Amino acid sequence: MGLKIIDRVKKSKEETITAPQAENTSAETAEQVKVPETVVCKSCGKTLDKEEVVANKYVCYECGHYFRVNTRNRLKMVADPQSFTPWFEELESKNPLDFPGYEEKLAAVREKTGLHEGVTIGQAKIYGEDAVVGVCDARFLMGSMGHVVGEKIASAVERATELRLPVIIFCCSGGARMQEGIVSLMQMAKTSAALKKHSDAGLLYVPVLTDPTTGGMTASFAMLGDIILAEPGALIGFAGPRVIEQTIGEKLPEGFQRAEFQLEHGFVDAIVERKNLKKTLYEILKLHRLSAVDGYANFEPATECDGRPTELMRERAAKAPLLKAWDKVQRARQVDRLSTEDYIGEIFTKFMELHGDRYFRDDPAIVGGIAYLDGQPVTVIGVQKGKDMKDCMRHNYGMPSPEGYRKALRLMKQAEKFHRPVITFVNTSGAFPGKEAEERGQGEAIARNLYEMSALKTPVLSLMIGEGGSGGALALAVGNEVWMMEHATYSVLSPEGFASILWKDGKRAKEAAGVMKITAKDLKELGIIEQIIPEYGGADEAALTSIAAYMRKEMRAFLERVSKRTGEELAEDRYQRFRSF
Asked: Burial level of 25, CB count in 10 A (0-12/13-18/19+)?
């Protein structure tokens, strides 16, 4: 652990700051040479110029290690100048267990840190956006959760609920405060209950996990955010590494419980570098404030979106050969076919990818997050197959695992809470059929998506952009409307599987494709889809701008059609849509 940068006068035991005094250079001159104050990074061991470290947001400029930040400096970094007003500083600490020496210890740490308690919380602005901001400080008994910490957080969340304000808490703690015993444990339930009321009111909560976030804090308010952010390298876990190693008698692998580990395992949405943190929080606050605007078609008025193809695209479309069903299967499977990420990058702005299912893992086969469609906040989710062999392997060839579907559902439920439309892009041969997927409940995950999507009280638009394979595709396609690309396919299973099951001959896949009614034209005639999206000769890089412009125009039209419908009406429309099949 590197050293914290602290106030020059107040210094905790674990911090060592070297500040050499200036010396006279000679008897002939009265001038002094200013020797810079320095700090030593315990991560890389190098001596650093303190001013440069401060200018670098308390990050080691040699190795990138993150120093711990005290409350005053944290507020300076994220809150607008003079905008922070602390709340509940008058709360008095007690000694519920009559623990010997506890009052004296509290008095000493207050004197040393200048803090009222282990958390400072109040109202602030972040680039003009109002929020309740709390900062937990490791200098105060290692940020442990005593009854005053719990009371300040619960009271602030209650006030935020009354004022309809979002809450941001910078979490940092070694866990429960031992001197308060069971009373400390109760703070976990108290803060969690307050956040439940805040969430039920449709309000945003963003915890930022800093080093360390452990114990009771991790098992309560630190992990209950709508969006959970973390600083690079932060230690995040319930039981600390030392406790785990002593309990199981094993040495833990390097990086275990660090922020990057938690991102990979699905428990945080994003790791944000400190230099980008204020801007990221501002973008999240702004997006959620705009999400609360009535209706679903709050577009920027100056946007030009006619969706007309270029002359070149019209010529390509005119020259394109007519394709049979099997030809379209081949087109839909092409590795260089335009992908979810291609369309997200071209159609939407300020896409913020969110990660993880909060249970097990972040599945790279499913990409999801929040973005703007011409000023209207939307949640965007899609299957990503990959563009080359290495990329395809990373995305598991677009075959989602249970945690991918659970991530998608988490983002859809979040969209429902904040009144954001959901737009999904589907391109999968099917759900991953591996042993581990079955062990983690693949069927249940798909079924749960169908169950929950059917009743979402927000608009859902689904686009088949490549293969739509079986239940693995349907799990992202329970939409108010479903559209298909001109050369996409959507089927109960692959033509190869169909031929193998019905005719006991997988080689008859081409024949099967012709009888399965899997093309966009077939499905439009069957009423399975509402619209066919032109590809202008092929969904490749050259056609991206034209296809995306067409999609954007039609998406806007869809949202304008449903804009004034209530959540209950949208859910009923979706129910009746599928009830009719």
From this structure: exposed
Q: How far apart are CA 180 and CA 189, in angstroms?
A: 15
Beta-bridged to residue 532, according to DSSP, are: 484
Sign of CA pseudo-dihedral 563, 568, 573, 577 = positive
**Amino acid making up residue 182:** I
Q: Which helix (H) or strand (E) holds 575?
A: helix 567-579
Q: Rounded to whole angstroms, how far apart are CA atoms 453 and 448?
A: 8
* Structure token pair of residue 333: 């499977």
The span from the CA of 374 to the CA of 300, in Å, is 6
Neighbouring C-beta atoms of residue 56, cutoff 10 Å:
16
- Dihedral Cα 467, 471, 473, 477, nearest 10 deg: 140
CA distance 533 to 347: 14
In single-letter form, the type of residue at position 488 comes to A
**pTM for the model:** 0.91
Q: What are the pLDDT digits (tens) for 41-87?
A: 999 999 999 999 999 999 999 999 999 999 999 999 999 999 999 99
pLDDT-based confidence at residue 303 (cuts at 50, 70, 90):
low
| Kind and range of the H or E run holding 460 | strand 460-469
Distances (CA, A) of 327 to 313, 331, 469, 521, 523: 21, 6, 16, 14, 16
To which residue do tokens 């997006």 refer? Answer: 287
Q: DSSP states of 2-15 as a string?
A: -PPB--SS---TT-
Strands, E assignment, 144-220: 167-173, 205-214
